[in-house]
């Protein structure tokens, strides 16, 4: 029986090598399943946001940690799972692939393709939740994001690194404003990310279609968690998309991100919170909803020169009901943002496009980022326009006899007509400056507003063809009297 000794030796060696300490393998068990959420016992070492795996291959992440149990939000359908099934830790936090390869794509919040093309090849992944840049890593907002919308660029200028909320009732043009802003980045240095949360797929396809037809699809990315996606995917979408955006921001690039919309995101958060028995607070939202959106929007920033000088500008969208801006989520979001563009159902019904309520809208830091030349011509615009809207209300009770009043009403009507803009018709910043300079000089007093659309399109080539305006066009920081006069002359020449 040769070989026995050898076998014995091998056995001895194995026994000696065997680690005799307790072997730790964390396994949990599903206690209960609800819509998109599992209550799990065990897994004492699990961390918040850690990915866990189920025997069906489905994945989820740890949403809340209690002493004796935890709640896991599903990222895949829970089909085939039931109470008693095992859950295992993965040791990794929920993360998203980042990198150049994502541009031009439509993906879900985990980076999985939704556009029928192969999975994007990326070499890096980042956690969906990341800390916001510290104060010392930031710089002041000082460069504009041009939206091509006169009503925004002239009245509520947005700066790179700013968070400007777009808020209003449904069907008042909120998405359209954000999409027009994205389309206007064509040919520029901005990367655009549109995050769809809880929307119908048809609505998302319309946005994708608009960008493909009129925008710069190769520099745009869509992160989509539509209404029928797992609540966990909808929940993580804005965070994951922001991590993708930060990768560009941290390389010194400029990113515009649209969250459409955070009202639906708040509703998903409330649903998951109620299912996991967190104590409901105001309007049944859990107490951490403010912090949730604050830590998301804090990640928008203009970075300091030492940090590469990139920027992340956010346009979160929120929907309100019956014009109620003082509901819980709207007030939260308003206080977290650096201003809000309020769309009005009344103005929309009165055919003002975009239907921006000038009295309720504000941009708190954008003024510093507005071009000097724009400031020079837009200074009085807001007040004149607001006064006009007020007088118009009162004039319903009887006409104004006063000639001065009549003149101001006529001037206001011209402003309203100028600010009116169909979708997909961006007005370049130099054309905006020319129009406002002409308005200021009274050159539009006799003009028929019906011709303003044609005027806007005709002006761009005229301005481009004027060598004396080249310096101003390249950098509209200051408006000299000569340039101002030249712009007014160009407008007069184009007017019929
Ligand atoms: N500037 C505009 N000119 C013409 N139509 C517009 C304009 N802005 C929005 N609309 C139309 O109004 C409708 C609602 O716009 P949308 O942006 O989807 O609103 P919301 O996002 O507030 O629900 C859409 O049919 C859109 O085409
Ligand atoms: Mg919308």
From TrEMBL:
It comes from Paenirhodobacter enshiensis. It is a peripheral membrane protein. It is found in: Cell membrane; Membrane. The record marks 361 as: Required for activity. Residues 148-363 form the ATPase F1/V1/A1 complex alpha/beta subunit nucleotide-binding domain. The keyword Signal does not apply. GO terms for cellular component: plasma membrane; proton-transporting ATP synthase complex. Residues 370-491 form the ATP synthase alpha subunit C-terminal domain. Its EC number is 7.1.2.2. CDD domains: F1-ATPase_alpha_CD. The keyword Cell division does not apply. This is ATP synthase subunit alpha. Residues 24-91 form the ATPase F1/V1/A1 complex alpha/beta subunit N-terminal domain. Gene3D superfamilies: 2.40.30.20, ATP synthase alpha/beta chain, C-terminal domain, P-loop containing nucleotide triphosphate hydrolases.
């Amino acid at each position: 029986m040769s070989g026995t000794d050898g076998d014995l030796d091998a056995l001895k060696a194995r026994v000696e090598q065997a680690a005799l300490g307790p072997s730790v393998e964390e396994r949990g068990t599903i206690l209960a399943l609800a819509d998109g959420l599992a209550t799990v016992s065990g897994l004492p070492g699990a961390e918040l946001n850690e990915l866990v795996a189920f025997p069906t291959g489905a994945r989820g992440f740890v949403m809340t940690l209690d002493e004796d149990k935890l709640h896991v939000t599903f990222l895949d359908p829970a089909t085939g799972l039931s109470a008693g099934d095992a859950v295992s830790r993965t040791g990794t936090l929920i993360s998203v692939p980042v990198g150049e390869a994502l541009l031009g794509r439509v993906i879900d919040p985990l980076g999985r393709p939704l556009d029928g093309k192969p999975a994007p090849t990326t070499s890096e992944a980042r956690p969906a939740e990341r800390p916001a840049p510290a104060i010392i890593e930031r710089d002041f907002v000082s460069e504009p994001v041009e939206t091509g919308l006169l009503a925004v660029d002239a009245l509520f200028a947005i700066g790179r690194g700013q968070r400007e909320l777009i808020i209003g009732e449904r069907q008042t043009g909120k998405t359209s404003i954000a999409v027009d802003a994205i389309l206007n980045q064509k040919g520029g240095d901005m990367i655009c990310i549109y995050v769809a949360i809880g929307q119908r797929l048809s609505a998302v396809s319309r946005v994708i279609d608009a960008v493909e037809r009129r925008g710069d699809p190769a520099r745009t990315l869509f992160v989509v968690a539509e209404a029928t996606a797992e609540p966990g995917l909808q929940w993580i979408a804005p965070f994951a998309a922001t991590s993708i955006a930060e990768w560009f921001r941290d390389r010194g690039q400029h990113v515009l991100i649209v969250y459409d919309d955070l009202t639906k995101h708040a509703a998903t958060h409330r649903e998951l919170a109620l299912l996991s028995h967190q104590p409901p607070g105001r309007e049944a939202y859990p107490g951490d909803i403010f912090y949730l959106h604050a830590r998301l929007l804090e990640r928008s920033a203009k970075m300091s020169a030492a940090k590469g000088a990139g920027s992340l500008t956010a346009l979160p969208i929120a929907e309100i009901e019956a014009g109620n801006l003082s509901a819980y989520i709207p007030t939260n979001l308003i206080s977290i943002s650096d201003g809000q563009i309020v769309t009005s159902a009344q103005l929309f019904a009165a055919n003002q496009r975009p239907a921006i309520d000038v009295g309720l809208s504000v941009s708190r830091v954008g003024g510093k980022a507005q071009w000097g030349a724009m400031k020079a011509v837009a200074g009085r615009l807001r007040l004149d326009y607001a006064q006009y809207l007020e007088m118009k209300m009162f004039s319903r009770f009887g006409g104004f006899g006063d000639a001065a009043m009549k003149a101001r009403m006529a001037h206001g009507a011209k402003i309203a007509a100028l600010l009116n803009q169909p979708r997909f018709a961006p007005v370049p910043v130099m054309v905006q400056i020319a129009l406002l300079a002409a308005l200021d000089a009274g050159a539009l007093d006799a003009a028929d507003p019906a011709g303003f659309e044609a005027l806007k399109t005709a002006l761009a080539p005229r301005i481009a063809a004027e060598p004396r305006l080249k310096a101003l066009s390249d950098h509209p920081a200051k408006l000299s009297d000569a340039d101002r006069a030249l712009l007014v002359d160009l407008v007069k020449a184009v007017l019929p």
